[in-house]
Amino acid sequence: MPEFLEYCQRRYGDRFTVRLGRLGTYVYLVDSEDIKEVFHGDDAVFHAGEANTPFLGWVLGPSSVLCTDDDVHMRQRRRLSGAFHGKSVAKLAPVMAEIAAEDVATWPVGEEFSVLPHMRRVALEVILRTVIGVPPTEEARLVNLRANLSALVDLNLLKLIPVAVPSMARLWPWSRYSAVQSRADQLVRSEIQRCRESVDLDERPDVLATLVRASGDDQMTADEIRDQLVTLLLAGHETTATGLAWTIERLTRHPAVLASARDAANQDDQTYLDALITESLRVRPVVPDITRLLVKDVTIGSGDSTLRLPAGTRVDPAIYLVMRSPKRYPDPLAFRPERFLGKRPDPSVWLPFGGGSRRCLGAAFALTEMRVVLSTILTHVDLATTTRKGEPARVRHVTLTPKLGARVTVLRRNAEVMALR
Ligand code: HEM
Fold first, then answer.
1. Closest of 1, 52, 65 to residue 23, by C-alpha
2. Pairing with 199, which of 36, 192, 216, 322 sits 20 to 30 Å away (CA)?
């Protein structure tokens, strides 16, 4: 996929069209001025929900914030946004650190392993504890949720075949996935019910409690809450885990950056860690592109470079290509956190979280989680560096993951962790 996008850009330039039969016609945009027009265009014309629905609607449900548009989307987004502001998210950092430390304590020493499955476990646990609000003491409940919800969001290209050929949904193995879906659904619904009945509802800091407490216009039905919870699980689990795995993969290939990151973590220097994460999400974006479906005919650009696009076209800001443009980032493939040291990234060319009114709702949550988890890893263990080539990217549903799962070796644990074990 990344190679294909690069090939198309080399061959056809900063605007190119990919026709995918029943899946539609996709016009990729690489120029940041074109992309600005998409992100700041009329939401009633550039439909993200309608574009996402064929791929995600069958898992997320009809009222998911990712699969709706216009007023319905705005309402769902507003209801969720309070829980995702910087201040609300900052309160979750201690739980995130605790979950990361528990996982790092299980890492082997002196033996190579893939860090991505560990990051998935951490990201899932963070969602279970901070979004659904399951207390750590409820082990049996957590075990059940872990198994069933991770199976629900374990999406791959095979599972998407019924999107193109709906009649396949009734056949094995797709029929088996429906059973997984209904088990997970029941569990989520019983969490909603349990939350509605909880005696400490008013004090609970988790996202589910915020949604259940909402009143007036913001009040939600159980179906709506179910759809948002599954959306947050899907949107926030694999993405953050993959972002973390890529950052570790990059660090182990850049000894000087790894040393600076370790110093920063030990001194609680958030500025360097933030720059490191910003650079990692630039050079290894988790989501390579995003889509808007045009509801009306649209023109992009002006004069000689006017591009006319008919209604029904899918327009794709090519995040991956924009963030490795040599015009925007000198020596774009080099991994240099210093590019962002003490600087906010330019929102027109730093796009790992998309943009406009659909920009990732969980961006602050993800950046906090990445900083806290990385800091925990760097203070708890010493990672070995390697001279091996970087891992190529593998497409996994809508994300690009490190092909080998980001292989790492721990050289030693620090004394504090030894004491915890
Ligand atoms: C590194 C981690 C993450 C990355 C790279 C990422 C990336 C993205 C991208 C590219 C979009 C689409 C934006 C657009 O269409 O313009 C998106 C949407 C969204 N993300 Fe994230 N995401 C991450 C983590 C999270 C987390 C942790 C959560 C919540 C727990 C979350 C919740 C959402 C939601 C709800 C949307 C839909 C927003 C809307 O349509 O209004 N994401 N994300």
1. 52
2. 216
